[in-house]
Amino acid sequence: MTILNDPVSAKLGDRAQLSYITSQAADARLNVELETEGMTLNIGPQNPATHGTLRIIARLDGEQVLWAEPSCGYMHRGYEKLTEVRSFPQVTSLINRIDWLGSFANEVPFILAAEKLMGVEAPPRAQWIRTILFELSRIANVSLFLGDLGVQLGAITPVFMAFRDREYVLNLIESATGGRFHPNFDRIGGLKDDLPAGWIDETKSVMKKLRNFCDEIESLLFGNEIFQSRTRGIGVIPRDVAMQYGLSGANLRASGVDWDLRRDQDSPMAWNKVDFKVWTHPDGDSFARCWVRLQETREATKIVDQLLDGIPAGPVMAKVPKIIKVPEGEAWVSTENPLGEMGYYVVSRGDSGPFRVKIRSASFNNISITPWLLRGVYVPDIITILASLYFILGDIDR
Amino acid sequence: MRLLKRKGAVNQLSSPAEITPVVDTVRDQVLADVQATLGTAVLDSLVKAGDDIWIRVSTQSWNASMQKLQAMGFDYFCFLSAIDWMPSPFGRGEDDPTEPAPERDTTIRPGYTGGDTRMQMLVRLVNSRTHVGINVKTDVPNEIYTVDSIANVFAGANWHEREAHEMFGIGFAGHPDLRNMYLPTDFEGFPMRKDFPLLARMVKPWPGIVDVEPLPGGDAESEEAS
């Protein structure tokens, strides 16, 4: 019936029409023979594209993904519940472990929220050192991403370079705070300690090394033809979709949104004292996300350099009561963490501990786009797309 | 710039010039626009100068309010969550498990912008052009614990609603897929509700509850200040 109404066959004679129908039927038979049975592919929980354990269930048609869904919960530790049975100063040791590669950055928004509720403000020197350590944890975090990116694409060298150069930054964090991964250094009203002697000069030389590292990675990876062909035009997130899913950080800026919380919101931190560029990319593909992160790492080293030159003198701790009781109220504070916008909605009832803390972690929103994003891509691209979204499992599950 | 000054605020180094206005014209204007758009759906509102905006909308208009807010420029979905306003009958885990638990006051008292129910939804939206955020609350009817899903307005709310569903036991009418994200399928109870005990504390009291670490800069007289 459909064939007779077909404009192509209507123009042909009877004989030609018959051969046309036969060829159509042959094509249809061929299609039936080539049609593969749908397959469900399980990726993970352990796989090299994740910092932690994330399982992805993908329904495939041949090489193409029909439907994919990440399955979280392997790292769920219930921090929101645990904060309700702890006092305010004790909470920082928990939230250190949310994004474990940039731990210090996790403490800052919570402490700022508590300070906002108490009406306490840390002295300028503490704010500057906080900002420096914040940016150092960004560098430590994202430099590992840049190295890890190579592993996803089968290049092993960048990851060794990343581990080598990240160690310099971790040593700095350790010498200032006493902890390589979990500093627990931020206090309500300031910092635990001042910087050790000679730290500023040491940091400046390390920042030079990290800029060299960024240059090396840029020439090694970003100029590479294989890297470009595997990431350009893959996993494109348009601006509107990114906003609806609440993507943040480099993932949002790679979709062309010029929005950085360090620049665009009032904060007691020292970001408004320095001059830096917010990098964006119009493409929204995997390459753009990786590229924005590379530029941000380099920019962070420049921020640290500027801050080191201008650290004000003075105490690192404001006067706060020994037993901290936070007045009743609600406060929301978020900062631009290595992975994106991290915020805490803190509800206090005038007690020594919080009544409710909602932890808004960047990776949870960033990864919630994957069912939308992975539909229709090819299997090898799953890995590069996940790598370019960059999430840390502790940051998804909390 | 810290705008909000409270009684007893400790600030050693701020000069009088830094004392900031109590009037926040930007946020007042945003709230006026929101109230004009949403009309009677807004039950209560609060602006803290230089800090944030809170509004509470009626439960029936929850989905419609989100659509209107999105249309008027609040196009960035930050997060969705719930708050259980009933104080925990288990306190903060400081009880000795061998002793009978003391009676605690579990009267429900809502936070900013009030409320009549035990559970409240909380959504934060941000205007991507002006970078002004707004916290939107709505009451979740007691016993029924169901509100409309907003996943059709903000696609990102899908996962947040799944999380709130398993943690608070709140149903979302119209949600495409309310499977558990974290907990096993046959898990009973809703962990983030205040009447769900933290079992680790039921077995052994938390030793850290009495721990007071001396802070640098703190001295004996400031202890009395609390």
Q: What's the CATH C level of chain B? A: Alpha Beta
Low-confidence stretches of chain B: 1-19, 220-226
Low-confidence stretches of chain A: 1-5
Spatially, the strands of the biggest sheet of chain B line up as 1-2-5-4-3
Shape annotation of chain B: globular
Can you tell me the CATH architecture of chain B? Answer: 2-Layer Sandwich
**Biggest sheet character of chain B:** 5 strands, mixed
Helix content of chain B: 10-25%
Characterise the protein shown here.
The complex is a heterodimer of chains A (398) and B (226). In chain A, α7 (124-152) runs antiparallel to α14. Chain A contains 18 helices and eight strands. Residues 1-5 of chain A have low confidence and may be disordered. Chain A has one domain: Cytochrome-c3 Hydrogenase, chain B. Chain A has 398 residues and is mainly α. Chain A is 51% helix and 12% strand. In chain A, the strands form three sheets. Chain A has a three-stranded antiparallel beta sheet with strand order 1-2-3. Chain B is of the alpha/beta class and 226 residues long. Chain B has a single domain (16-99, 108-208), classed as Beta Polymerase, domain 2. Chain B contains five helices and seven strands, in the order αββαββββαβαα. Chain B has a five-stranded mixed beta sheet. A two-stranded parallel ribbon of chain B has the order 6-7. In chain B, β4 and β5 (133-140) form a beta hairpin. The longest helix of chain B is centred in the first third of the chain and has 14 residues, at 25-38. The model of chain B is unreliable at 1-19 and 220-226 (pLDDT under 50). The chains are: A mainly alpha (398), B alpha/beta (226). Chains A and B meet through α4, α11, β6, β7 and β8 of A and β3, α3 and α5 of B.
